Amino acid sequence: MQELYVAGGSWLHRLSAGWKLLALALAGTLMFGLRAPVPLAIACLMVAVVVWSAGIGWRRFWTQARWLAVLTLIVAGFTAVVQDAEAGLVAGLRMASLIGLALAVTFTTTASALVDALAAGLRPLHRRGWVDADRVAFTIALTLRFVPELQRRWQAIREAQAARGIRANPVRLVVPMVVAILQAADTIAEAIEARGYPPEPREPPRRP
Questions:
Q1: How far apart are CA 65 and CA 74, in angstroms?
Q2: Which residue, 50, 43, 99, 46, is CA-closest to 71?
Q3: Residue range 194-200: mean pLDDT, rounded
């Protein structure tokens, strides 16, 4: 996620992460309220305008969105088969709009800003004792940092197998990838425990 950030001076870059996340949540709620192809098609055009105005660049955007586009087509096709063609079109347009907005936020916001905004949004729940905002933010930060690391490990496994003349096979890729994930998770857990972070919340001293 951190590697997806594109530095710039557009209005979307200048907008605070909290407002962007709030707008993304509201837009997602609105998208699921739209159930006709025409309004959703208009929403897709508006999302395209937002992406263009952010100055991300269509080539960079498509590099990250192409696999999500394949997933969108699969979901739309499955919905069309199970229900009907209009339902499949609605599902595809809705998913494309949400993916476009999410990528626009990701490209224009650093991971640290996103984590800080989420932690700030959870503060009211933290004060009520319902969640630990710091621990949630810490978990999200680790997850965001872990995603590009998994991508690099996947690419390294593919290159290593290709160098040995092993043909690409999902099973041969997934098995070493799962092992690598488990090893990395153990290493990260040990490092966190060794540093004692995040610290346990201290209870106020009780009066005798």
A1: 14
A2: 99
A3: 60
Over the stretch 45-99, which tens digit does the pLDDT of each residue have?
Answer: 999 999 898 888 888 888 878 888 888 999 999 999 999 999 999 999 999 999 9
Distances (CA, A) of 65 to 33, 80, 92: 24, 22, 14
Quick one: tokens of 137? 């933010």
Enter the tokens of residue 99.
Answer: 């993916």
Cα 86 from chain centroid (whole Å)? 28
Whether residue 204 has pLDDT greater than 70: no
Long-range contacts of 31-39 (CB under 8 A, 24+ apart): 31/94, 31/97, 31/98, 32/94, 34/90, 34/94, 35/90, 36/90, 37/86, 37/89, 37/90, 37/93
Q: What are the structural domain ranges in the chain?
A: 2-121, 131-195
- Tens of pLDDT, residues 137-153: 777 777 766 766 777 77
Both structure tokens of 151: 């991508």
